[in-house]
Amino acid sequence: MDVREVRERINLWIYDSKPKVLAVLSGMNILVSLMSIGILIYYYGFSLTNEQKEFTFHLIQVSFGFYVFRYLIKVFYDFDPFTFIKRNWFETIIFGLLLLEGIAYNIFGTLLIEPLFTSFGFKNFADFSTIFVQLFIFVILLNNVFKQRNFRPWARMHPGWLFTFSIMGMTLIGAGLLMLPEMSTIKGGIAFPDAVFTAMSSVSVTGLSTVDISSALTFKGQMVVLVMIKLGGLNTIAFGALMLVVAKFGVGIKYHEVIEDFVNKDSILKAQSMLAKIVIWASTIELVGTILLFFSFGNQGIFSSTGDRMFYSLFHGVSAFNNAGLSIFPNGMMNPDVINNQFSHSIVLILFFLGGFGMIYVFDLFEWKKVRERFKYPWKSIDFGTKVSLYFTLALLLLGAVVFFIFEYYNTLDGNSVGKNILFSLYQSMTTRNAGFNVVETAKLSLPVMIIFLFLMFIGASSGSAGGGIRTSTFAIMWASLLSTIRGKKNTELFKRTIANDLVLKAYAVFLFFVVGNIVGPFALVITESDLLSLGKYDFMDLVFEHVSAASTVGLSTGLTPELSTGGKFVLIIAMFIGRVGTLTVAYLVGTRVISTKYKYPEGHTMVG
C-alpha cells in the first residue's frame, strides 16, 4: 500500500466528521482571537506585577499552542495536504516560525532571533522579545481576518463610506489604546480630546500634536502611533487599489467613478497586482529609508543605544515616507543631535518626495520595466498623470525653496553655510507641502514666507499619495484652465493633452470646497480661542496657519497646538478628518445624486469679472 492509498483511506475516514470539526475549529478560532486581542491590550496597556506578567505569558503560550494545533488539524483534514501547504504558503511560514520560536523558548528560554539582535548591539533585547512574540499573534489575527475573503457585504457599501469608516475606526481604536495607563507618562493617562487628536493626527498622517509625543508617550505609546501612521498612510495610498479588488466581488458600476478618485483609472484591469505592488514598494522604501537613517544618525547623544537608534530610524523612516510629520526626537528635527546632520536631512527629504509623489507615478517613473522600455523606445515618455505630478511638484518645490532662501537668509537661516541653507530651503519647501517636519522655528518665519507656505500647504501633495491639500493635479488643471481661458481656447489643454470638462469642473469643486472649509474653520477657531487671542501671544494669522496645516494634513504649527481649548482641538480634528477623507468624497456622501443628467436648461448669460 503506497502513500496515496493511505491518504485515500484517511480521506474516507474523515469525510463525515470534516464539516463538524472545521466548524468547531472556526468557532474556537474566534474565541482565541478575541482572547489574544484582550491579552495584547491587558499586557501592554496596564502596569502588571511579575506574577500577572507570568500568567499572561502562559495565556500567550496557550494561544500559540492553539494556532499550531489549528494549523495541523487543517492540514490533516484537507483531502490533499501538500496542495494545502502550497496554497497557504504564508500561513505555513508563520506556523514554521511559530513552532521554531516556541520550541526554542521552552527549551533554551530564549528566542532564536535574540542572538541576531544582540550581535548588532541590542544589549537589552529581552525588553523587545515580547513584542516579537506578540507580533506573531498580530500577523496571525490579520491573516485570519483577510483569509475569509468575504467582501460581499462591504462591496455593496459606497466606497466613500468605506474609506470614511476605516479612518474613523482606526482613529477611535488608536485613541482608546493611547488612553491606557502604560501608553503615556501622564498621570491618569492622556485625556480623551488629546488622545483623539493624536490618533487622528497619526491616522491622517498630519503631524500636529497637543502633547509632546517624545516625552508624554512611553515606548508602547509611540509604537501605537507608529502603527497608526503606517496603517493610515497605507490606507490612503492603497485604498483605491483595494476597492478595485473588492469591486470584483460585486460593487456596483455606479461606484466606479468614486473609486477612480482614489487611484489611476488605468489600474482597474490589474487591481490585485497593483495592490500588492503598492504594499511591497511602500514597505521596501520605508525599510531602505530606515536602514539609511540608522547609519546616518551615528552613535552619539540620543543615538548611543543601538536599540533606541533603531527605533528612532524606523519611526522617522515611516513617518517621513507617509508624510506624517510626527517626531519622537526631543524638539523634533531641530534636536541638537540631528539639526546639523545634513545626510539625515537629505534622506528624509527623499522620503518626503517619494511619499508625496504618488505611488502610481513612482511606478511609472522608477519601475525597471518602464525605464527599460523608455530606453529602448526613446519616443515613449512618462504618462500624462506622472508629468503633471512631477513637473508641478518640482515647480512648487523650487518656488518655495527660492522664496524661503531669499527671505530667511538673514533671519532663521542666519549663520549657516550656503550649502546648508540651500538644503534647508528645499527641505522646508517640501515639508511645507505635505510632511510637517521643520528645521527652523515656524513662529519666527517672516510674513512673506508664511504667506507662500500657506499657498504651498493649500495645494499639498500629489494624488494617490500620503499627503493632503487640494493636490497638485487639481492645481495643474485649474492653472491650465486659466491659461486656456486667457488665450481664448475652447478646450482646456495641458502638456499637449485636452482635459475633459468634467475633470475641470471637479477640480474647481475641490478648490471651492477647500476654500469654504478654510474659511469656516478659522471662523470657528476665532470663537473657541477668543481667550487665547486676547492674551496677545497669537493672532488671527496663527489660527489660519494652524487650520490650513490641519486641513491639508501637513502638520506645521507656530506653537499654538498644545495651547488649544477643547473646542479648538475638535475643530482641528474635524479639519484633519475632512482633509484626509477628501472634500470631494465628503460631498459625494452628503450630496444628493440626480436621477438623470440627460437634459439641458435654456442658456443663461451674466457678466463675469
Structure description:
The protein has a domain of 148 residues. Helices cover 67% and strands 1% of the residues. The protein contains 26 helices and two strands. The chain has a two-stranded antiparallel ribbon. α21 packs across α22. The chain is globular and about 85 Å long. About 5% of the residues have low confidence.
Quick tags:
single chain, 609 residues, mainly alpha, two-stranded antiparallel ribbon, 26 helices, globular
Entry summary:
Helix content is 67%, strand content 1%.
Number of strands: 2
Give helix and strand order, one letter per element, not per position.
Answer: HHHHHHHHHHHHHHHHHHHHHEEHHHHH
- Report the β-strand fraction as a percent range: under 5%
- Main-sheet strand order equals 1-2
Q: What number is the mean pLDDT?
A: 79
Number of helices: 26
Distance between the termini: 92 Å
Q: What composes the largest sheet?
A: 2 strands, antiparallel
List the helices and strands and how they pair.
Layout: H1 3-14, H2 18-45, H3 50-77, H4 81-87, H5 89-108, H6 114-119, H7 126-147, H8 152-155, H9 159-178, H10 192-203, H11 219-247, H12 256-260, H13 271-297, H14 306-321, H15 342-357, H16 359-366, H17 368-376, H18 384-408, H19 418-435, H20 447-459, H21 472-486, E1 492-494, E2 497-499, H22 501-528, H23 530-534, H24 540-551, H25 566-581, H26 583-590
Antiparallel strand pairs: 1-2
Helix pairs in contact: 2-3, 2-7, 3-5, 5-7, 9-10, 9-11, 10-11, 10-25, 11-13, 13-14, 13-15, 14-15, 15-19, 16-18, 18-19, 18-20, 19-20, 20-24, 21-22, 22-24, 22-25, 24-25
